[in-house]
Design the sequence.
C-alpha cells in the first residue's frame, strides 16, 4: 500500500514539474514574441551609443508586435519617430536583424550636407543626432541629393556613419520589417543604461 502511495506521489510531483516547465516556456515565448526580446550587438555601426557585445532589450509592442505566421500586427502604442533606435529585419536578407537610428518616415525628404542630416530642410541636431558627423556615401547618401522616403517606409542610419551599412547604401526599411525599439542595455553590467 505504501509503495503505491509513493508511486502516486512521485507521478504527481513529476506532472507538476512538467506543467510548470510548460507554462514557463509558453509564457517566455509569448513575452519574447510580443513584449520584449534580447539582442546582442555584433558590430560597431552604432558606436558609441551601442558597443560590440552589448546585450539590449527591445520593446516589441510599442510599434505593434508582428504576429508570427500571419500578415498583420497587434495595435501600436505609437508610431516610430526620428531619433528612435530601432531593430528591424534587414531588407536585403530576411535572416538578419539590423539595428540603426531612425532618421525619417514616409513622405519626408532627407539630405546629408556637410556632415549634418537635414529632414524636410531642417537640420537634425538633437535626439541622438547632435555631435555626430554623417558621411555622404552610397546611392542614397550622395552630397546634394535629396531623397524622398516612400510612404510606409523608413530611412535609417548608424550612429557610427564611417562604418555603417545603412539606408545610404541599400535604401529603405518597410514598416512590416520593424521589430521594435531598443530601450535598454543590460549587459555588460558596466554599460547598464537606457538607450537614447
Sequence:
Amino acid at each position: 500500500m505504501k509503495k503505491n502511495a509513493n508511486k502516486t506521489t512521485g507521478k504527481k510531483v513529476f506532472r507538476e514539474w512538467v506543467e510548470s516547465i510548460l507554462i514557463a516556456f509558453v509564457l517566455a515565448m509569448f513575452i519574447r514574441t510580443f513584449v520584449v526580446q534580447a539582442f546582442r550587438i555584433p558590430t560597431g555601426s552604432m558606436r558609441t551609443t551601442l558597443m560590440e557585445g552589448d546585450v539590449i532589450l527591445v520593446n516589441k509592442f510599442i510599434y505593434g508586435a508582428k504576429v508570427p505566421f500571419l500578415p498583420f500586427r497587434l495595435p501600436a502604442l505609437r508610431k516610430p519617430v526620428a531619433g528612435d533606435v530601432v531593430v528591424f529585419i534587414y531588407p536585403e536578407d530576411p535572416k538578419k536583424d539590423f539595428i540603426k537610428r531612425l532618421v525619417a518616415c514616409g513622405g519626408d525628404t532627407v539630405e546629408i550636407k556637410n556632415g549634418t542630416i537635414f529632414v524636410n530642410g531642417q537640420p537634425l541636431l538633437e535626439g541622438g543626432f547632435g555631435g555626430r558627423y554623417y558621411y555622404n556615401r552610397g546611392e542614397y547618401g550622395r552630397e546634394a541629393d535629396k531623397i524622398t522616403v516612400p510612404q510606409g517606409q523608413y530611412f535609417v542610419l548608424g550612429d557610427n556613419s564611417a562604418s555603417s551599412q545603412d539606408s545610404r547604401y541599400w535604401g529603405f526599411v518597410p514598416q512590416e520589417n520593424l521589430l521594435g525599439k531598443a530601450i535598454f542595455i543590460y549587459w555588460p553590467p558596466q554599460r547598464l543604461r537606457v538607450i537614447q
